[in-house]
Amino acid sequence: MKIYPSIASGNVLNLQESLDKTEGWPLLHIDIEDGNFVSNISFGMKTVKAICNAAGNRSIDVHMMANDPFNYLEELADCGVSSVCAHLEALDYPMVFLNRARSLGMKAGLALNMKTPVIETEIFWPVMDYLLLMTSEPDGGSETLYEPAFKRAIKAATLLPKEVKLMVDGGITADRLPELSKADIYGVVMGREVFSHEDPYRKLLELSNFI
């Protein structure tokens, strides 16, 4: 199982410092929040480009929490992004998004908020590379892990075809990693759990011992 540190939980006043403190880790996760699909605003494309340029050889996964995710694809591809997912809830025509992302050389996925059943993605499995399931949501509770959503993710791992990888995102802590690993979940996004540590890279190494 792969751990994707989420730079949105890094030092927003010094993103370079957060990148430096995780240098050597091969993966990075970027959240693009537009202030419409979700209330928060994270990074505009100018900042995303700067992060990608400073990330070195890291494989970058982008999670778009935006109302018009299709409009970001060409710029993300130009930044060297490896994989990108957008919320099914924001897409009128998910196949258009998935096929365009793939045609630009990126892995393409769909993301689901907790209210959306996993089965709604079934028709798109042949043209998607991964599914990202939210295990928390911006509910005013510091986006802590919601246990029923965690259990849903474990169950979803048995439903998806092997060609569609499963990632989870939201409030995951170290003690839950063994369960996710045992379920053969492909990847987990971890933000505060990593960047709240004074040495995020060492924390990532410690977390890798749980999987």
Describe the fold and architecture.
29% of the residues lie in helices and 20% in strands. The chain is of the alpha/beta class.
Features:
8-stranded parallel beta sheet, 29% helix, 211 residues, alpha/beta, globular, 8 helices
Topology:
Layout: E1 2-5, H1 15-21, E2 27-33, H2 45-54, E3 59-65, H3 73-78, E4 83-87, H4 94-103, E5 107-112, E6 130-134, H5 147-156, E7 165-169, H6 177-182, E8 187-190, H7 192-195, H8 200-208
Parallel strand pairs: 1-8, 2-3, 3-4, 4-5, 5-6, 6-7, 7-8
Short description:
This protein is 29% helix and 20% strand. The chain is built from eight helices and eight strands, in the order E-H-E-H-E-H-E-H-E-E-H-E-H-E-H-H.
- Please state the CA-atom Rg, rounded to the nearest Å: 16 Å
**How does the overall form come out from the CA principal axes?**
globular
What percent of residues are in strands? 15-25%
What's the end-to-end separation, in Å? 7 Å
Global mean pLDDT: 95
Structural class: alpha/beta
Order of helices and strands: EHEHEHEHEEHEHEHH
Helix content: 25-40%
The largest sheet is: 8 strands, parallel
